[in-house]
């Protein structure tokens, strides 16, 4: 990708030391900044380029790179790094859409087309990791917006971030839809000689036409599977996020069987799956898309998500039951999505308990979290890899975060056997 035309805003404060921006093209015209961005501290300039028609990139100097996850979160990690805000992948279901409203931009087109770039993310992160109080906990990348979206081909923020994490002795994970990950695989392999590195590829749709409709800015599924293979060939135990599973669009037995077959053939070791959830911002955008593209499903989606961001418990149980035999068939270890109403309630209780726990005690702040999901089945031998990951990855468990239950199915991580489900789930 060539960054052939750039445009500077009329407001370009002096950059901090070591973070000088390139001069804009003399022939360029000013780019229009999104409302509210001029009040954003650290804004350097807003740029456009023909390779990204209709998009604007707002380059900022970040004061911090490490983000602490709230204690009440159900996520299995405490720290994240997000070098970008907004995402050109333009996935209609993206849960992070509402975060753009904090910048006085909308959660729809602005999220897809107005991308904030923390151009000094690697330098700031290295400084934060060098602080004596940093405890080298697991850091997750790609949990909000994609670090390997197309603009990364120009900005190249990830090599510096990877290097900073590895040199500080900090284990980390990367979740992406971007095939730009292949560019950094040699660097990630080097990092994995120093720290634990987990790689995950998000692949939700295996039908090309539907994939381009629902994720119009992403690489095609075949290219992502090839990236999984490239990482696996280097010894990584790659996880594939088969999510969101969208009711009546991607949840048939044939569709899930084909998805798992393709994932296994690509060399992945593990799958995390989960039903679609629609938080405010994403909900409105996705349901408008359903109205346009699949009006026959509109009333069903409206009913399912009218009072909750999550698919019904009944549907999620049905999906678990449909997935289990397919996972066994393809010999894949699997975890269910941790972002559920039940997991969130448990996380809130855990956070309350941690407030009173003694330092260093089980459940006290500072304990390491990492990895993805709750393990519900395994079709592989546990063991290490060339890059130090074993089993399902850091923080992987042998049962639900809510504990084992009586009457569970043997060998399926304590998930209870399900009663026959009523035909109408959705």
From TrEMBL:
Entry-linked SUPFAM superfamilies: Radical SAM enzymes (SSF102114)
Region (Disordered): 1-30, 351-426
Biased composition regions of type Gly residues, renumbered to the chain: 363-396
Residue span, Radical SAM core domain: 73-314
The organism's place on the tree of life at top rank: Bacteria
Compositional bias ranges of the Polar residues kind: 1-12
InterPro entries the UniProt entry points to: Elp3/MiaA/NifB-like_rSAM, MJ0683-like, rSAM, rSAM_sf
Keyword terms, alphabetized: Iron, Iron-sulfur, Metal-binding
Low complexity compositional bias, start-end: 13-30
Protein's name according to its UniProt entry: Rv2578c family radical SAM protein
